UniProtKB/TrEMBL annotation:
Positions of the UniProt region annotated as Disordered: 517-585
Secretion signal, residue range per the UniProt entry: none
Superkingdom assignment: Bacteria
Transmembrane spans: 27-47, 243-264
Keyword annotations of the record: Membrane, Transmembrane, Transmembrane helix
Basic and acidic residues bias spans: 575-585
Xref: Gene3D superfamilies: P-loop containing nucleotide triphosphate hydrolases (3.40.50.300)
Keyword Membrane: yes
Protein name: Lipopolysaccharide biosynthesis protein
Low complexity biased stretches: 517-533
Length: 585
C-alpha cells in the first residue's frame, strides 16, 4: 500500500506543477510588466555600455634582493600580493597617475574605472581601465601602472636609505672605538693584558668589515618594484555587450521578475486560485466549470456552442447520482454576491437537463426582488397546479395560482413558478403556500429547482434552506473571495442546509458582452417597431386567441405588490415548524 501511495503522489506532482503554472499565467499583466521592466533595463544597459573600452596592462612583482637567481630566496615569502593590490588601488597611485595624465577631475572619478586583479598562482598584477575611448583607456591604464611602480620604488628606496643611514652610524661608532682601542694597545707593554686588548681591537675591525659589507650590499640592490610584461594598447572593439544581447538578458531577467511578482500576487490573492481552492472553501466538489459566456444564455438550446449543453447535462447527472440530492430531489441555486444572472442560467439549464431525463421538473423563481424569468423564457400558461387552492387565503401575493410551462426545445418542457414583486419578501418566502410548493418534490419522479437571490446580499436563500436543504453555489472564482465562500458554507450549515457542490463560470470578455448587448438591443428594437407604428400610443386591443390553442401568459398587476420607492422593507421573521404544519392543514 505504501508503494501505491508513493506512486500516486509522484503521479500527482506533475499535475500540481502544471496547475500552479496555469495559476501563475492568470496574472499576465504582472508578468508582462516584469518583462517590460526587464527589456527597458536591457535597453538602458546596452546603450550605456555600448561605447565602453577596456585596456589592460600587466606587471610582474619583485622585491629588492641581492641575488634574484638564488633559489633559496622565495618571492612568495617576500611579497604579499594582496597588500600590493590594495596599494595599486590606493589614492597615492591615483595621484601619481593624475599628474602624468594632467587630470583635471577628481581623484575618485579616476579611481572608479580602475580594476586591479591577480591571476591565480602568480606574482602578476593586472591593471584594467575602462574609458569612453580606446586611447583614453590605454593611456590611463599605463599611467596607473607606471604610477604604481614609481610609488613602490620610492617606498623601497626610502626604506633602503633609512637602513643605510643606520648602518653608517653604526659603522662610524665602530670605527671610532677601533681607533681608540688601537691607540690603547700601542701604549701597553707586551703581556697578557695587551693580548686581551688586542683581541677587542680585532673584533671591532671584523665588525667594521661586516658593516661595510652590508652597506655595500644595500647600495647594490635594484629598487624597481616589478617589470611590465604587457603594455596597454588601444582596444579595437567595445567591451560592452551588444544591444541584442542586452535585450536578451533583460528579457530573461524580466521573465524571472514577472514570475516572481506573479507568485507573490498568487500567494496573497484572496480569490480562489483553482477548482481545488473552491472545493476546499465550500467543502464540496466542483460539479462543473462552464465555458466562457455560457451563463449569458438562459437555455443552452439557444446557445451556439454544443459544449455548453453537455456541461450542464454533466452537472445534472452528477447531482442525480448524489444520494443527498436523490433522496429529496430539491435544489437551491444561489450566487455569492452581485448579479443573479449566472445562477438563473444555471438553474434554468439544470431544470431543462432534468426534464430531458424524464423528470417532472418545477423551476421556482424565489427572487422576488428582481424577477425576470417569465419575460425571458418561452413560457405559456398551464392549468392550476396541485399546490394552489382557491380556498387558501392569499396574503403575500406570491406564488400566484397560475403555473407556466417552459418550452426547452429538444429537452422537453418544465414548469415555472415566476417570481413577482411583493410588499413583504420575508413573509412570502416563509408562507405555507411556499412550503406546499416545494413539497411537490415529494411526488414520484419529481424535482424542484429553486432560484434565490445572492446569499451575501439578501437573507432570502437562508429562509428557504430549512425546506430546500441541498444548495448549489454558482460563482466566478475571479470575482469572489475564499472568505466569502467559507462564510456562505457556514451560513448554509447554520441554517440546516448542505452545500452539494459548486459550479464555476467565466464571464465573457468586454467585447463579447458589448456585442451581445447590441444584438439584444437590435432584437428589442425590431420587436417594438411594429407597435410604435400603430396608433401612436393608443392601447392595443386584446388579441383573440384561436380555439384549442394555449393562452400565452401575461402577468396581471397585483395591487398588493410592493412597487413604490418609499415603501418600507420588512425584515425576515422567524417561522416555527408547527406554524407551517398548521398552514398545510
Amino acid at each position: 500500500m505504501s508503494n501505491l501511495h508513493g506512486a500516486a503522489v509522484e503521479d500527482d506532482e506533475p499535475e500540481l506543477l502544471r496547475d500552479q503554472f496555469k495559476q501563475l499565467l492568470r496574472y499576465r499583466a504582472v508578468i508582462g510588466t516584469g518583462i517590460g521592466i526587464g527589456l527597458l533595463g536591457g535597453v538602458w544597459f546596452g546603450l550605456s555600455n555600448a561605447d565602453t573600452y577596456v585596456a589592460t596592462s600587466q606587471v610582474v612583482l619583485r622585491a629588492p634582493v641581492n641575488d634574484p637567481f638564488n633559489p633559496s630566496i622565495s618571492q612568495d615569502k617576500t611579497l604579499n600580493v594582496g597588500s600590493e593590490r590594495q596599494t595599486a588601488l590606493s589614492s597615492s597611485v591615483a595621484e601619481g597617475a593624475a599628474k602624468k595624465l594632467h587630470w583635471t577631475g577628481t581623484i575618485g572619478r579616476l579611481q572608479r574605472d580602475l580594476q586591479v586583479t591577480n591571476p591565480p598562482q602568480s606574482q602578476v598584477l593586472q591593471f584594467s581601465y575602462t574609458a569612453d575611448t580606446p586611447q583614453a583607456a590605454a593611456d590611463r591604464a599605463n599611467a596607473m601602472t607606471q604610477a604604481y611602480l614609481e610609488l613602490r620604488e620610492k617606498q623601497w628606496t626610502a626604506i633602503r636609505a633609512k637602513m643605510l643611514q643606520g648602518l653608517k652610524n653604526e659603522l662610524d661608532e665602530a670605527s671610532l672605538r677601533h681607533d681608540k682601542q688601537e691607540k690603547k694597545v700601542d701604549r701597553m707593554p707586551a703581556g697578557a693584558a695587551r693580548d686581551a686588548e688586542y683581541g677587542i681591537k680585532t673584533n671591532l675591525a671584523n665588525r667594521m668589515i661586516e658593516l661595510e659589507g652590508r652597506v655595500s650590499g644595500l647600495k647594490s640592490l635594484d629598487m624597481s618594484a616589478g617589470t611590465v610584461i604587457r603594455t596597454a594598447t588601444a582596444p579595437g572593439y567595445s567591451d560592452g555587450p551588444s544591444l541584442a544581447m542586452s535585450l536578451g538578458l533583460g528579457a530573461l531577467v524580466g521573465v524571472a521578475l514577472g514570475l516572481l511578482a506573479a507568485w507573490v500576487r498568487l500567494v496573497f490573492d484572496p480569490a480562489p486560485r483553482s477548482a481545488g481552492d473552491v472545493a476546499r472553501a465550500v467543502r464540496a466538489p466542483v460539479l462543473g466549470t462552464l465555458p466562457r459566456g455560457a451563463t449569458e444564455t438562459l437555455l443552452a438550446g439557444d446557445h451556439t456552442d454544443a459544449k455548453v449543453g453537455e456541461e450542464f447535462r454533466s452537472v445534472a447527472f452528477r447531482l442525480a447520482y448524489d444520494q443527498r440530492f436523490a433522496d429529496r430531489r430539491r435544489l437551491l441555486v444561489v450566487a455569492p454576491r452581485g448579479s443573479s444572472e449566472p445562477a438563473a442560467a444555471v438553474a434554468t439549464n439544470l431544470a431543462a437537463s432534468f426534464a430531458e431525463t424524464g423528470k417532472d421538473v418545477l423551476l421556482v423563481e424565489a427572487d422576488l426582488r428582481t424577477p425576470t424569468l417569465a419575460g425571458r423564457l418561452r413560457a405559456n400558461a398551464s392549468g392550476a397546479p396541485r399546490w394552489s387552492s382557491a380556498a387558501e387565503p392569499d396574503e403575500s401575493g406570491w406564488p400566484g395560482r397560475r403555473q407556466l410551462s417552459v418550452d426547452a426545445g429538444e429537452s422537453g418542457s418544465f414548469g415555472l413558478v415566476p417570481g413577482e414583486r411583493v410588499r413583504n419578501v420575508a413573509r412570502a418566502l416563509t408562507s405555507p403556500r411556499v412550503s406546499r410548493l416545494i413539497a411537490e418534490a415529494d411526488s414520484p419522479n419529481s424535482t424542484v429547482v429553486v432560484l434565490a437571490p445572492p446569499v451575501l446580499a439578501y437573507a432570502d436563500a437562508l429562509a428557504l434552506v430549512d425546506r430546500v436543504d441541498g444548495v448549489l453555489i454558482v460563482c466566478d472564482p475571479r470575482s469572489v473571495h475564499r472568505v466569502d465562500l467559507q462564510r456562505i458554507r457556514e451560513l448554509i450549515g447554520g441554517a440546516g442546509g448542505t452545500v452539494l457542490g459548486a459550479v464555476m463560470f467565466t464571464p465573457p470578455t468586454r467585447r463579447a458582452a458589448k456585442a451581445a448587448a447590441k444584438a439584444a438591443a437590435r432584437s428589442s428594437a425590431r420587436s417594438d417597431a411594429p407597435q410604435s407604428r400603430r396608433g401612436g400610443g393608443r392601447a392595443k386591443p386584446p388579441r383573440q386567441q384561436p380555439a384549442g390553442q394555449e393562452e400565452e401568459y401575461e402577468p396581471e398587476p397585483d395591487p398588493r405588490v410592493w412597487g413604490g420607492e418609499n415603501s418600507d422593507t420588512v425584515a425576515l421573521r422567524s417561522v416555527r415548524p408547527e406554524d407551517l404544519r398548521a398552514g398545510d392543514r
